């Protein structure tokens, strides 16, 4: 990576962190409005803006990830095999998570929102199971790398 790219990336990272800090401060200290209809709760005024900002950051991350993956595949065609293996493992994890997921509607007193429906609950379960699998794989990878050091000596 060139020095110019490193500087640009560094400045962009600091700018995004500063903007996130501003949103966080507004979120906690910027006042509240009435919450979801039918509940007695309040929510911060900037909740929707904060969520929209998070969507923008996720979109930027996805676009950059895809672009740099394509760039690396063009520069290193032999890496395609490893990329396809990783993609296959990811698909298998999602399939296993989908098989384990449950779409049973929850009994939530005082909640009349639109998110307690089977489809939303199923996708939430899938996302949680995938996160659990990835966290477990990360812990196993850390353990493997630490234990493997002792056997290589």
Give a written overview of the molecule.
The protein has 153 residues and is mostly helical. It folds into two domains: 1-75, no CATH class; 78-153. The protein is 74% helix and 4% strand. The chain is built from four helices and two strands, in the order αββααα. The protein has helices at 3-29, 47-75, 79-100, 118-152, and strands spanning 32-34, 42-44. The chain has a two-stranded antiparallel sheet. The radius of gyration is 21 Å and the shape is extended. The mean pLDDT is 88.
In DSSP terms (H or I, runs of 4 or more residues), the helix count works out at 4
Per DSSP, what share of the residues sits in E-state strands of 2 or more residues? under 5%
**What are the low-pLDDT stretches, counting only 5+ consecutive residues below 50?**
none
Radius of gyration: 21 Å
| DSSP strand count | 2
Categorize the overall geometry: extended
Q: Return the structural class.
A: mainly alpha
Q: Can you give the mean pLDDT?
A: 88
Helical residues, percent: over 70%
Count up the domains: 2
Largest sheet: 2 strands, antiparallel
Written as H for each helix and E for each strand, in order along the chain, the element string is HEEHHH
From the N-terminal CA to the C-terminal CA, the straight-line distance is 34 Å
| Lateral strand order in the biggest sheet | 1-2
């Amino acid at each position: 990576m060139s020095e110019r790219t490193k500087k640009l990336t560094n400045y962009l990272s600091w700018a995004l962190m500063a903007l996130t800090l501003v949103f966080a401060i507004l979120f906690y200290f910027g006042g509240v409005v009435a919450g979801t209809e039918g509940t007695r709760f309040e929510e911060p005024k900037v909740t929707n803006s904060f969520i929209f900002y998070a969507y923008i950051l996720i979109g930027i991350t996805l676009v950059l990830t895809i672009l740099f993956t394509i760039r690396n595949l063009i520069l290193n065609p032999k890496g395609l095999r490893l990329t396809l293996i990783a993609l296959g493992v990811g698909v298998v994890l999602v399939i296993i998570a989908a098989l384990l997921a449950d779409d049973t509607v929850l009994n939530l007193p005082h909640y009349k929102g639109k998110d307690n429906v089977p489809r939303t609950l199923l996708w939430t379960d899938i996302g949680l199971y995938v996160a659990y699998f990835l966290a477990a794989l990360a812990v196993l990878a850390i353990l493997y790398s630490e234990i493997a050091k002792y056997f290589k000596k």
